[in-house]
Amino acid sequence: MPHLVILYTPNLDKPLADGGADMGGLCRALCDALLTVRDEQGQQVFPTGGTRVLAYPAAHSAVSDGGATGMAAGLGGDYAFVYMNLRMAKGRSAVVHQRVGEVLNACVKECFAGQLAHRPIGITVQVDEGHEVFDAKNSSLHPLFQRT
Amino acid sequence: MPHLVILYTPNLDKPLADGGADMGGLCRALCDALLTVRDEQGQQVFPTGGTRVLAYPAAHSAVSDGGATGMAAGLGGDYAFVYMNLRMAKGRSAVVHQRVGEVLNACVKECFAGQLAHRPIGITVQVDEGHEVFDAKNSSLHPLFQRT
Amino acid sequence: MPHLVILYTPNLDKPLADGGADMGGLCRALCDALLTVRDEQGQQVFPTGGTRVLAYPAAHSAVSDGGATGMAAGLGGDYAFVYMNLRMAKGRSAVVHQRVGEVLNACVKECFAGQLAHRPIGITVQVDEGHEVFDAKNSSLHPLFQRT
Hints:
3 copies of one chain form a homotrimer.
Chain A: E1 3-8, H1 23-36, E2 52-57, E3 60-63, H2 68-72, E4 80-88, H3 94-111, H4 113-118, E5 121-129, E6 134-139, H5 142-147
Parallel strand pairs in A: 1-2, 4-5
Antiparallel strand pairs in A: 1-4
Helix pairs in contact in A: 1-3
């Protein structure tokens, strides 16, 4: 059930030379990172067949003061923002929550090191525990990994 | 207030012949399904003028191991994922929650029967109860149905 | 941390003359509105460098009965829907929650006055308090405003 959604400003979809980021590569890196997390017993926390990352550039957005302060500081006014929210099934320990968050945030720090150094950008990583009142899963993906 | 959001991998927006699904038709089917749900007193649970379904293909995504296991199994590596989250107003009974979830999941099972049979795909249906700290509704849609 | 996400039907991205709305301008107006909110001590509630608004038209959608009742009423069947959800950090007072919601809703009422008068449209504004189990922020935006 780990379900990671990334909401971000569309300027990050520009070509890399114009200040964009490799958002497709980020999705893969985050998905791989999630699959490495182990619990206190050394078991893989997230089932391989149920782990996915989905990223969405906004069609319209507004960030902070719109750019004036960044321009005045000589850093440019093209602010970027990335919000990541992982929703995981309830019932995991606080230790596991912390491990999951730290693995995601380490990946973010590496992937966005250049952006953080050179432009005004904010990147938030949050983990929520789901508290759904109904839950159903239909999958022809899970069985692939239970067979192996 | 029922608010159903569908997040999914963009490969489902391909033409049907290339493995896509009719996501527009799915939205309509799910909306119609929501409008059929009755509570323990036989009353329609969701107001017609407040029921809506919004579907979003991701711009970038990563699912599971990226395809290797599916290809090795002869099922192809083009994994798909659909995550559906219904947020409904708080205060409904557990019976109503269950009915709502089951109606949505029955619709999903029918709409995705072919996909589930022929490709690696995961489809999750969750229902959340909203716990908002502020709520305001502005509508020229609701009055249409209160008049009739 | 205020994080405002707007999910809406894609018909609002049509040209204004065809019934569309200025969704980019709405994002800016809502962001500016958030920055005006003060708490009981007169302090700005949301940090300038952490405030952002992201808007997403659905690729596919279904609203209410699909248009029949609106057409029968002579108002047209092209229903629109806008759902706004602000997630703010936990720990704020009920007074602050109310102020934040009212500021957003006042902005919505002004921006959509024409739409509400002339077409079937529903606009919901909700504020959630985050209850995340992990939270990390990486930012080169915040420091811009702490310096000034």
